[in-house]
Specification:
- By secondary structure, the chain is α+β, with helices and mostly antiparallel strands.
- Helix content is 20%, strand content 39%.
- The strands form two sheets. The protein has an eight-stranded antiparallel beta barrel with strand order 7-8-9-10-12-13-14-15. It has a six-stranded mixed β-sheet with strand order 1-6-5-4-2-3.
- A hairpin with a 2-residue loop joins strand 4 and strand 5.
- The longest helix is centred in the N-terminal third of the chain and has 16 residues.
Length: 420
Protein backbone atom coordinates (compact mmCIF):
# COMPACT_ATOMS: atom_id res chain seq x y z
CA UNK A 1 0.00 0.00 0.00
CA UNK A 2 2.79 2.42 0.90
CA UNK A 3 4.54 1.61 -2.36
CA UNK A 4 1.35 2.33 -4.32
CA UNK A 5 0.87 5.69 -2.57
CA UNK A 6 4.50 6.57 -3.30
CA UNK A 7 4.06 5.80 -7.01
CA UNK A 8 0.85 7.83 -7.14
CA UNK A 9 2.53 10.79 -5.41
CA UNK A 10 5.47 10.74 -7.83
CA UNK A 11 3.08 10.52 -10.77
CA UNK A 12 1.05 13.48 -9.52
CA UNK A 13 4.20 15.58 -9.02
CA UNK A 14 5.37 14.70 -12.52
CA UNK A 15 2.05 15.74 -14.01
CA UNK A 16 2.07 19.03 -12.08
CA UNK A 17 5.66 19.81 -13.02
CA UNK A 18 4.94 19.24 -16.74
CA UNK A 19 1.54 20.94 -16.79
CA UNK A 20 3.09 24.28 -17.77
CA UNK A 21 6.48 25.19 -19.20
CA UNK A 22 7.10 28.89 -19.89
CA UNK A 23 10.11 29.42 -22.17
CA UNK A 24 10.30 33.20 -21.64
CA UNK A 25 8.10 36.13 -20.62
CA UNK A 26 8.92 39.67 -21.81
CA UNK A 27 6.07 41.14 -19.72
CA UNK A 28 3.75 42.21 -22.50
CA UNK A 29 0.80 44.53 -21.84
CA UNK A 30 -2.60 42.89 -21.60
CA UNK A 31 -5.35 45.32 -22.64
CA UNK A 32 -8.80 45.40 -21.12
CA UNK A 33 -11.57 44.61 -23.63
CA UNK A 34 -8.79 43.65 -26.05
CA UNK A 35 -8.72 41.66 -29.26
CA UNK A 36 -7.19 38.17 -29.19
CA UNK A 37 -6.37 36.88 -32.67
CA UNK A 38 -5.93 33.09 -32.70
CA UNK A 39 -3.23 32.07 -35.19
CA UNK A 40 -3.77 28.30 -35.41
CA UNK A 41 -1.17 26.81 -37.75
CA UNK A 42 -1.81 23.20 -36.73
CA UNK A 43 -5.17 21.87 -37.87
CA UNK A 44 -4.83 18.80 -35.64
CA UNK A 45 -6.03 21.01 -32.79
CA UNK A 46 -9.11 23.20 -32.86
CA UNK A 47 -9.51 26.37 -30.80
CA UNK A 48 -13.06 27.62 -30.31
CA UNK A 49 -12.84 31.47 -30.07
CA UNK A 50 -16.05 31.85 -28.05
CA UNK A 51 -15.12 29.21 -25.48
CA UNK A 52 -11.59 30.56 -25.23
CA UNK A 53 -12.92 34.07 -24.52
CA UNK A 54 -15.13 32.63 -21.79
CA UNK A 55 -12.07 30.97 -20.24
CA UNK A 56 -10.24 34.31 -20.32
CA UNK A 57 -13.09 36.06 -18.52
CA UNK A 58 -13.45 33.21 -16.05
CA UNK A 59 -9.76 33.16 -15.12
CA UNK A 60 -8.94 36.89 -15.28
CA UNK A 61 -11.67 39.23 -14.07
CA UNK A 62 -9.67 42.33 -15.03
CA UNK A 63 -9.70 41.47 -18.73
CA UNK A 64 -13.21 42.87 -19.21
CA UNK A 65 -15.01 41.73 -22.37
CA UNK A 66 -12.35 40.49 -24.81
CA UNK A 67 -13.06 39.66 -28.45
CA UNK A 68 -11.55 36.44 -29.80
CA UNK A 69 -11.48 35.29 -33.40
CA UNK A 70 -9.51 33.07 -35.74
CA UNK A 71 -6.79 35.09 -37.46
CA UNK A 72 -7.55 33.87 -40.96
CA UNK A 73 -5.57 36.68 -42.60
CA UNK A 74 -2.28 35.27 -41.31
CA UNK A 75 -3.34 31.65 -41.75
CA UNK A 76 -3.83 32.28 -45.48
CA UNK A 77 -0.77 34.52 -45.95
CA UNK A 78 2.30 32.83 -47.50
CA UNK A 79 4.82 35.08 -45.68
CA UNK A 80 3.16 34.45 -42.31
CA UNK A 81 2.92 30.76 -43.09
CA UNK A 82 6.67 30.50 -43.75
CA UNK A 83 7.40 32.31 -40.47
CA UNK A 84 5.00 30.01 -38.61
CA UNK A 85 6.74 26.95 -40.11
CA UNK A 86 10.12 28.31 -39.05
CA UNK A 87 8.78 28.95 -35.53
CA UNK A 88 7.62 25.35 -35.36
CA UNK A 89 11.21 24.18 -35.77
CA UNK A 90 12.87 26.73 -33.48
CA UNK A 91 10.37 27.46 -30.70
CA UNK A 92 11.41 25.04 -27.98
CA UNK A 93 12.40 25.00 -24.28
CA UNK A 94 15.43 27.21 -23.64
CA UNK A 95 14.80 29.40 -26.69
CA UNK A 96 15.32 33.14 -26.28
CA UNK A 97 12.97 35.74 -27.71
CA UNK A 98 15.69 37.61 -29.61
CA UNK A 99 16.57 34.45 -31.57
CA UNK A 100 12.98 34.15 -32.83
CA UNK A 101 12.71 37.57 -34.45
CA UNK A 102 10.87 37.86 -37.75
CA UNK A 103 13.32 38.72 -40.55
CA UNK A 104 11.11 39.32 -43.60
CA UNK A 105 10.13 43.03 -43.92
CA UNK A 106 6.57 42.09 -44.83
CA UNK A 107 6.24 39.96 -41.68
CA UNK A 108 7.70 42.72 -39.52
CA UNK A 109 5.19 45.17 -41.02
CA UNK A 110 2.32 42.80 -40.23
CA UNK A 111 3.36 42.59 -36.58
CA UNK A 112 3.81 46.38 -36.29
CA UNK A 113 0.28 46.95 -37.66
CA UNK A 114 -1.48 45.02 -34.89
CA UNK A 115 -2.46 48.16 -32.85
CA UNK A 116 -3.12 46.82 -29.34
CA UNK A 117 -4.20 43.42 -30.62
CA UNK A 118 -2.58 40.22 -29.33
CA UNK A 119 -1.82 37.37 -31.72
CA UNK A 120 -1.80 33.94 -30.11
CA UNK A 121 0.23 31.42 -32.13
CA UNK A 122 -0.95 27.85 -31.42
CA UNK A 123 0.52 24.51 -32.50
CA UNK A 124 0.41 21.01 -31.12
CA UNK A 125 3.53 19.23 -29.88
CA UNK A 126 4.01 15.84 -28.31
CA UNK A 127 1.98 15.80 -25.10
CA UNK A 128 1.11 19.48 -25.16
CA UNK A 129 0.08 22.64 -26.92
CA UNK A 130 2.70 25.26 -27.79
CA UNK A 131 1.70 28.93 -27.50
CA UNK A 132 3.47 32.18 -28.44
CA UNK A 133 2.09 35.69 -28.04
CA UNK A 134 2.86 38.67 -30.31
CA UNK A 135 1.99 42.35 -30.08
CA UNK A 136 2.93 45.47 -32.03
CA UNK A 137 5.85 46.47 -29.80
CA UNK A 138 8.40 43.91 -31.04
CA UNK A 139 9.15 41.65 -33.98
CA UNK A 140 9.73 38.76 -31.56
CA UNK A 141 7.31 36.72 -29.46
CA UNK A 142 6.59 38.47 -26.15
CA UNK A 143 5.85 35.23 -24.33
CA UNK A 144 6.08 31.55 -25.21
CA UNK A 145 5.67 28.13 -23.66
CA UNK A 146 3.64 24.96 -23.59
CA UNK A 147 0.71 23.64 -21.61
CA UNK A 148 -0.19 19.99 -21.21
CA UNK A 149 -2.70 18.71 -23.76
CA UNK A 150 -6.17 17.97 -22.43
CA UNK A 151 -8.89 16.24 -24.43
CA UNK A 152 -11.40 18.42 -22.57
CA UNK A 153 -11.24 21.70 -24.54
CA UNK A 154 -12.64 23.78 -21.66
CA UNK A 155 -9.91 22.54 -19.31
CA UNK A 156 -7.29 23.14 -22.02
CA UNK A 157 -8.51 26.72 -22.61
CA UNK A 158 -8.47 27.36 -18.85
CA UNK A 159 -4.84 26.18 -18.67
CA UNK A 160 -3.88 28.44 -21.57
CA UNK A 161 -5.65 31.42 -19.99
CA UNK A 162 -4.01 30.82 -16.62
CA UNK A 163 -0.56 30.35 -18.12
CA UNK A 164 -0.42 33.19 -20.66
CA UNK A 165 -3.10 35.74 -19.70
CA UNK A 166 -2.79 35.86 -15.91
CA UNK A 167 -1.59 39.49 -15.55
CA UNK A 168 -3.71 42.56 -14.69
CA UNK A 169 -5.29 44.12 -17.77
CA UNK A 170 -4.87 47.82 -18.56
CA UNK A 171 -7.22 50.23 -20.26
CA UNK A 172 -6.76 50.29 -24.03
CA UNK A 173 -5.22 53.41 -25.50
CA UNK A 174 -7.20 55.69 -27.76
CA UNK A 175 -5.89 56.56 -31.21
CA UNK A 176 -4.58 59.92 -29.98
CA UNK A 177 -2.91 58.27 -26.98
CA UNK A 178 -1.18 55.77 -29.26
CA UNK A 179 0.07 58.59 -31.48
CA UNK A 180 1.40 60.47 -28.45
CA UNK A 181 3.11 57.34 -27.14
CA UNK A 182 4.73 56.73 -30.51
CA UNK A 183 6.11 60.29 -30.57
CA UNK A 184 7.78 60.02 -27.15
CA UNK A 185 11.57 59.55 -26.94
CA UNK A 186 12.94 56.04 -26.86
CA UNK A 187 13.17 54.06 -23.62
CA UNK A 188 16.89 54.70 -23.07
CA UNK A 189 16.44 58.45 -23.43
CA UNK A 190 13.54 58.48 -20.98
CA UNK A 191 15.39 56.50 -18.35
CA UNK A 192 18.66 58.43 -18.56
CA UNK A 193 18.44 61.63 -16.48
CA UNK A 194 20.12 64.82 -17.60
CA UNK A 195 22.09 64.91 -14.36
CA UNK A 196 22.78 62.37 -11.63
CA UNK A 197 24.45 63.85 -8.56
CA UNK A 198 25.86 62.41 -5.37
CA UNK A 199 27.51 63.35 -2.11
CA UNK A 200 29.44 60.91 0.02
CA UNK A 201 31.73 60.19 2.93
CA UNK A 202 34.37 57.49 2.78
CA UNK A 203 37.04 55.69 4.74
CA UNK A 204 40.17 54.42 3.07
CA UNK A 205 43.74 53.27 3.39
CA UNK A 206 46.82 54.37 1.48
CA UNK A 207 50.36 53.06 1.22
CA UNK A 208 53.46 53.74 -0.82
CA UNK A 209 53.85 50.20 -2.17
CA UNK A 210 51.69 49.51 -5.22
CA UNK A 211 50.54 45.85 -5.32
CA UNK A 212 52.33 43.52 -7.74
CA UNK A 213 55.37 45.78 -8.00
CA UNK A 214 58.91 44.98 -6.70
CA UNK A 215 59.67 45.81 -3.07
CA UNK A 216 63.01 47.38 -3.94
CA UNK A 217 61.18 50.26 -5.61
CA UNK A 218 60.07 51.49 -2.20
CA UNK A 219 62.47 50.02 0.36
CA UNK A 220 64.69 53.10 0.55
CA UNK A 221 61.65 55.28 1.31
CA UNK A 222 59.76 52.94 3.62
CA UNK A 223 62.78 51.88 5.71
CA UNK A 224 64.14 55.40 6.02
CA UNK A 225 64.43 57.07 9.45
CA UNK A 226 64.82 60.75 10.36
CA UNK A 227 67.81 61.65 12.53
CA UNK A 228 68.46 64.97 14.25
CA UNK A 229 65.09 66.29 13.03
CA UNK A 230 66.17 66.60 9.37
CA UNK A 231 68.76 64.04 8.27
CA UNK A 232 67.60 61.15 6.09
CA UNK A 233 68.78 59.17 3.04
CA UNK A 234 67.32 61.62 0.54
CA UNK A 235 64.50 64.13 0.24
CA UNK A 236 62.87 62.95 -2.97
CA UNK A 237 59.79 61.52 -1.25
CA UNK A 238 57.68 62.48 1.72
CA UNK A 239 57.71 58.82 2.72
CA UNK A 240 61.39 59.21 3.70
CA UNK A 241 60.13 61.34 6.59
CA UNK A 242 56.58 60.25 7.46
CA UNK A 243 54.67 56.96 7.62
CA UNK A 244 53.23 55.97 4.26
CA UNK A 245 50.63 53.42 5.45
CA UNK A 246 47.74 55.17 7.18
CA UNK A 247 43.92 55.39 7.05
CA UNK A 248 42.18 58.48 5.73
CA UNK A 249 38.76 60.14 5.72
CA UNK A 250 37.28 61.59 2.54
CA UNK A 251 34.33 63.84 1.72
CA UNK A 252 33.26 64.21 -1.88
CA UNK A 253 30.52 65.39 -4.21
CA UNK A 254 30.02 64.91 -7.92
CA UNK A 255 27.70 64.13 -10.76
CA UNK A 256 27.39 62.73 -14.27
CA UNK A 257 25.61 64.10 -17.31
CA UNK A 258 23.60 61.75 -19.55
CA UNK A 259 24.93 58.70 -17.74
CA UNK A 260 28.41 58.97 -19.24
CA UNK A 261 30.69 61.89 -18.35
CA UNK A 262 30.97 63.59 -14.99
CA UNK A 263 33.15 65.36 -12.46
CA UNK A 264 33.85 65.06 -8.75
CA UNK A 265 35.47 67.25 -6.11
CA UNK A 266 37.04 65.50 -3.15
CA UNK A 267 38.59 66.44 0.19
CA UNK A 268 40.83 63.96 2.00
CA UNK A 269 42.50 64.11 5.40
CA UNK A 270 44.98 61.73 7.03
CA UNK A 271 47.45 61.73 9.91
CA UNK A 272 51.10 60.67 9.41
CA UNK A 273 53.65 60.23 12.19
CA UNK A 274 57.24 61.27 11.54
CA UNK A 275 59.56 58.28 11.34
CA UNK A 276 62.00 59.32 14.05
CA UNK A 277 64.98 57.12 14.85
CA UNK A 278 64.40 55.62 18.30
CA UNK A 279 68.18 55.34 18.86
CA UNK A 280 68.71 59.06 18.33
CA UNK A 281 69.01 60.86 21.69
CA UNK A 282 68.07 64.14 20.00
CA UNK A 283 64.45 63.13 20.43
CA UNK A 284 64.59 62.71 24.21
CA UNK A 285 63.05 66.17 24.46
CA UNK A 286 60.26 65.40 21.97
CA UNK A 287 56.68 64.75 23.11
CA UNK A 288 55.04 64.20 19.69
CA UNK A 289 55.63 65.00 16.02
CA UNK A 290 53.24 64.29 13.18
CA UNK A 291 51.64 65.90 10.13
CA UNK A 292 48.01 66.22 9.06
CA UNK A 293 47.68 65.70 5.33
CA UNK A 294 44.88 67.75 3.72
CA UNK A 295 44.11 67.27 0.02
CA UNK A 296 41.63 68.92 -2.33
CA UNK A 297 41.17 67.39 -5.77
CA UNK A 298 39.04 67.57 -8.89
CA UNK A 299 38.61 64.63 -11.24
CA UNK A 300 36.79 63.73 -14.45
CA UNK A 301 34.62 60.60 -14.40
CA UNK A 302 33.70 58.33 -17.31
CA UNK A 303 31.00 55.83 -16.36
CA UNK A 304 28.28 53.47 -17.57
CA UNK A 305 25.20 52.49 -15.56
CA UNK A 306 23.83 48.96 -15.66
CA UNK A 307 20.30 48.62 -14.18
CA UNK A 308 20.27 45.19 -12.54
CA UNK A 309 16.66 45.35 -11.34
CA UNK A 310 14.18 47.85 -9.89
CA UNK A 311 16.18 48.42 -6.69
CA UNK A 312 19.83 48.14 -7.80
CA UNK A 313 21.93 50.03 -10.37
CA UNK A 314 25.66 49.33 -10.79
CA UNK A 315 27.88 52.06 -12.27
CA UNK A 316 31.54 51.21 -12.93
CA UNK A 317 33.73 54.24 -13.62
CA UNK A 318 37.26 55.46 -14.27
CA UNK A 319 38.58 58.79 -13.02
CA UNK A 320 41.48 61.09 -13.78
CA UNK A 321 42.22 64.37 -12.06
CA UNK A 322 44.58 66.64 -10.15
CA UNK A 323 44.99 67.56 -6.50
CA UNK A 324 46.70 69.97 -4.12
CA UNK A 325 48.20 68.62 -0.89
CA UNK A 326 48.89 70.56 2.31
CA UNK A 327 50.81 69.15 5.30
CA UNK A 328 50.13 70.78 8.66
CA UNK A 329 52.75 70.09 11.30
CA UNK A 330 51.91 69.20 14.90
CA UNK A 331 54.97 69.11 17.18
CA UNK A 332 55.83 69.83 20.79
CA UNK A 333 58.46 69.04 23.40
CA UNK A 334 57.88 67.54 26.81
CA UNK A 335 56.58 69.75 29.63
CA UNK A 336 59.86 69.64 31.54
CA UNK A 337 61.87 70.98 28.59
CA UNK A 338 62.30 74.71 29.02
CA UNK A 339 64.02 75.42 25.71
CA UNK A 340 64.09 73.18 22.63
CA UNK A 341 67.41 72.24 21.11
CA UNK A 342 68.98 73.90 18.08
CA UNK A 343 68.19 70.81 16.00
CA UNK A 344 64.53 71.19 16.95
CA UNK A 345 64.54 74.80 15.78
CA UNK A 346 66.27 73.86 12.50
CA UNK A 347 64.09 70.83 11.79
CA UNK A 348 62.98 69.83 8.32
CA UNK A 349 60.16 71.79 6.69
CA UNK A 350 57.65 70.73 4.08
CA UNK A 351 56.55 72.97 1.24
CA UNK A 352 53.38 74.97 1.66
CA UNK A 353 51.61 73.10 -1.15
CA UNK A 354 52.26 70.09 -3.36
CA UNK A 355 50.72 69.55 -6.76
CA UNK A 356 49.84 66.11 -8.09
CA UNK A 357 47.59 63.83 -10.11
CA UNK A 358 45.26 60.94 -9.34
CA UNK A 359 43.93 58.14 -11.50
CA UNK A 360 41.86 55.08 -10.70
CA UNK A 361 38.79 52.92 -11.15
CA UNK A 362 35.72 52.21 -9.05
CA UNK A 363 32.07 51.25 -8.96
CA UNK A 364 28.92 52.66 -7.41
CA UNK A 365 26.13 50.38 -6.18
CA UNK A 366 22.95 52.46 -5.92
CA UNK A 367 19.93 51.05 -4.09
CA UNK A 368 16.40 52.39 -4.60
CA UNK A 369 17.82 55.16 -6.85
CA UNK A 370 19.13 57.16 -3.86
CA UNK A 371 21.35 55.20 -1.46
CA UNK A 372 24.76 54.13 -2.66
CA UNK A 373 27.94 52.31 -1.76
CA UNK A 374 31.11 53.25 -3.61
CA UNK A 375 34.29 51.20 -3.95
CA UNK A 376 37.35 52.72 -5.58
CA UNK A 377 41.07 52.26 -5.89
CA UNK A 378 43.78 54.26 -7.56
CA UNK A 379 47.18 55.94 -7.53
CA UNK A 380 47.93 59.51 -6.48
CA UNK A 381 51.06 61.63 -6.69
CA UNK A 382 52.46 64.76 -5.08
CA UNK A 383 55.25 66.84 -6.55
CA UNK A 384 57.34 69.77 -5.48
CA UNK A 385 56.66 73.13 -7.08
CA UNK A 386 59.61 73.39 -9.48
CA UNK A 387 58.66 76.81 -10.76
CA UNK A 388 59.86 78.84 -7.76
CA UNK A 389 62.95 80.97 -8.34
CA UNK A 390 66.12 79.79 -6.57
CA UNK A 391 67.12 81.80 -3.52
CA UNK A 392 70.66 83.09 -2.97
CA UNK A 393 70.24 82.04 0.66
CA UNK A 394 69.26 78.47 -0.25
CA UNK A 395 72.22 77.01 1.67
CA UNK A 396 70.96 78.54 4.89
CA UNK A 397 67.35 77.48 4.38
CA UNK A 398 65.81 74.32 5.89
CA UNK A 399 65.78 71.26 3.66
CA UNK A 400 62.90 71.15 1.14
CA UNK A 401 61.46 67.68 0.60
CA UNK A 402 58.81 65.82 -1.42
CA UNK A 403 59.82 66.16 -5.05
CA UNK A 404 58.25 62.82 -5.96
CA UNK A 405 55.71 61.21 -3.62
CA UNK A 406 53.43 58.43 -4.92
CA UNK A 407 50.99 56.13 -3.15
CA UNK A 408 48.08 53.83 -3.93
CA UNK A 409 44.77 53.82 -2.10
CA UNK A 410 41.51 51.94 -1.67
CA UNK A 411 38.33 53.33 -0.12
CA UNK A 412 34.73 52.52 0.73
CA UNK A 413 32.11 55.28 0.71
CA UNK A 414 28.46 55.78 1.62
CA UNK A 415 26.57 58.05 -0.77
CA UNK A 416 23.27 59.78 -1.38
CA UNK A 417 22.16 60.18 -5.01
CA UNK A 418 19.59 62.37 -6.74
CA UNK A 419 18.54 63.07 -10.34
CA UNK A 420 17.55 66.26 -12.11
Amino acid sequence: MKKLLYVLLISMLAVISHAKDIYFDSHYTLWKDGDILIWNVDKSITIDPKEFCLSLKRNNTSIGDPKCRIFGEWERDSVALRYATWLGYNLEPGAKAEYLKARHPAMIAKIQALEDKIVMYVSKVEGGVRVALFDETAGTPKMAGTVAFNSDPIALYDDMANSFFDRPAKRRLTKKEREKLASEPDEYYQETPNFNGWIGVGLGYSQAKIPLTPDNWYRSHIDSKVRKYRVTKDSTSLWNFIDDSDPFLSLYAGGTWYGFIGAEIIYRVAKHNVKTDSKDTSYDELDYWYFYQHEIGLSIHLSKTFPMNKWLDITPFVFLGFQYSFFVEEIDVKDDVKKPSAAYEKRVEFEEVYKGALVGIGSQFVFAKHYGISLRTGISSRGRDTYSDPSPDAAAEPTTIGGSTIDCFVSLGLEYHWVL
